[in-house]
Prior knowledge:
This protein is an alpha+beta fold.
Amino acid sequence: MKFKWSLRIASAIATCAIVLMTPQLARSQSAQTPLPAVARSCINSTFVARYSLIGTTQVAGETFYLLETFEQGETAPEFADTLVISVANQRCRERYFDPSGEGGSLSSAIPQAAARQLTLQAYQREIAQVGRSHVQQTIDDLAADAQGVVTWPDEEVWAIRQLGLRLPANVRVAPQSGGVQR
């Protein structure tokens, strides 16, 4: 329950973006974004039929990749899973995987600086796909659905502020829960 809001915001925005952009997605679904071979080795092909690279960042000599993944036969955006893998010293690690769609704080699994940059890139992608006003409306709707004070992960709030989007008045930053702070 503590991870209730994390990537749910970006996932809701992504869902709307994909629904609105079906013609463009039909063209891009067949082509997977190239990743270094060492990074691809962390993707479990038994469960992941295709993926899309959402963002990448480097922190302390480690490269982090944020991926949207789909199981075999899944194409609907609401079934996308979130995967973060990292590569350091030619070794890859799965750092975060959310197949349940519950969302979680990336900074509970990776350094806060990496979580912030990957979340920022996810928002930038959505703004490019559906527009700034649609992203703002989705943020407002998610906060309003909470009916009271709601806490969102630091990286979500940070990215919203970096992009000059309006943070709803009922949103608070979730306290850090012993996540990775490198």
